[in-house]
Amino acid sequence: MAGFSILLFIATVVTVVSGIRDDFLRLPSENVEGTRWAVLVAGSKDYYNYRHQADVCHAYQILRKGGLKDENIIVFMYDDIAYNESNPHPGVIINNPHGRDVYKGVPKDYVGEEINVENFLAVLLANKSALTGGSGKVLDTGPNDHIFIYYTDHGGAGVLGMPSKPYLFASELNDALKKKHASGTYKSIVFYVDACEAGSMFRGLLPEDYNIYVMAASDVGEGSWSTYCPFQDPSLPPEYDVCLGDLYSIAWMEDCDVQCEVVRERTIQALLLGGTHVVEFGDIGLSNHSLFEYMGTDPANDNRTFVGKKSLLPLSQRDADLIHFWEKFRRATKGSPRKAEAEKQLREVMSHRMHIDSSVKHIGKLLFGVEKGQKMLNSVRPAGLPIVDDWDCLKTMVRTFETHCGSLSQYGMKHMRSFANLCNAGIQKEQMVEASSQACVSIPDNPWSSLHNGFSA
Ligand SMILES: *[C@@H]1O[C@H](CO)[C@@H](O)[C@H](O)[C@H]1NC(C)=O
Ligand SMILES: *[C@@H]1O[C@H](CO)[C@@H](O)[C@H](O)[C@H]1NC(C)=O
Ligand SMILES: *[C@@H]1O[C@H](CO)[C@@H](O)[C@H](O)[C@H]1NC(C)=O
Ligand SMILES: *[C@@H]1O[C@H](CO)[C@@H](O)[C@H](O)[C@H]1NC(C)=O
Predict the structure, then answer these.
(1) Its pTM surpasses 0.85
(2) Could you give the residue range(s) of every CATH 3.40.50.1460 domain in the chain?
(3) Which of the chain's ends, N or C, has fewer CB atoms near its CB within 10 Å?
(4) Which strands make up the sheet holding 159-160, listed edge to edge?
């Protein structure tokens, strides 16, 4: 009997101690119960998308300085930038024209092809058996824990990009959040999404009572913005020919770099006041929480005070790759092989864009008639409704298009709403097959339209 109680006592003590972990020793004002966790995702690859991985590395540095531990920060980053042959400073990634290296020390939990929908959802749901490759770190959270998720990449209506196809669909993301909620393994989640049409991932889908607060850089039908790009002010160091950051991401992170004293008092929402356009979803009440609860604070910044935000210049995310190709072309010596190659790249990317745009338009006309085609493709559902109800139909439409017309590629994500509208109008797969094969007699032969990267849906 006595032995049993002692065992019980020890078990209780062990549970209490391991539950408290290191967050125990804090000033009362800093007392945050539970552990802070973070998942950081750069959803793209390739040097012309430099900025997404730069954003993620920068976010990691902020969280580390804020006191989060590596074991609680899970990083998804393709890792083809730091040592890319185009990087003028091998092993270094910057996120600001005058910024320091943000690459050093970033854990490589999921890199290359390990960044895909399955692994991302497995991490979210702490389902290790569903993982393929990677460090095996998952959101192994408890009921008092705070989770910060940050995603930066290209997006389209109802989808976020992943470097390995397919895209992450809104239906899958919200199903996973629903499961996470049902598992009772978090106190609250703050989710920052920097991508075109990011709001479409949540609008009409995310319930308000999940203790999940989402702040998105753009709503359905809206673009998001890159910044620190060539041709902009402040000018980049001359050796750079790519955008170094994204507007919304830079807005919250540079605030955090300089003003972390303020972070302690400031709320999640206030951090972004100062001109950056955002949209909110889920449990809006959480926006009153202190950012400190999610990101911690850097003691070195304790005495800083809030200064007004400087304005950043936007460049459409969808055009950031064009700027890179143009810069590469402009800088190359006349008559050099590099110039010829850059010109070829620029032509290819332009012609692929035109091919995708005209094919989608043509399909619209074939399905709805010359008069109504464009109107049907662009139609907008009433506020509060998701972009589509039948997500399987949406995937089928995308696949059918890509089978006949080639890969949408990151630019083509802008047409996701058109595909959703085909479903909303009751178009059947057979009709889409016929229209696509009529619109695209052959798949153009260039790297932008190849099918070897797999289907987007
Ligand atoms: C560098 O980026 C290009 C695309 O811009 C990509 O094709 C290449 O694989 C990358 N190189 C490395 C070493 O990752
Ligand atoms: C974890 O993933 C595996 C493989 O995808 C799946 O069969 C299993 O149901 C998942 N477990 C949970 C708890 O979701
Ligand atoms: C945040 O708190 C303030 C004051 O405490 C309150 O007036 C406001 O309604 C709250 N906002 C939300 C969205 O809960
Ligand atoms: C902040 O100010 C206090 C009081 O002036 C001082 O004791 C402390 O060392 C300062 N902290 C930092 C990090 O500069």
Answers:
(1) yes
(2) 26-317
(3) N
(4) 155-156, 159-160, 168-169
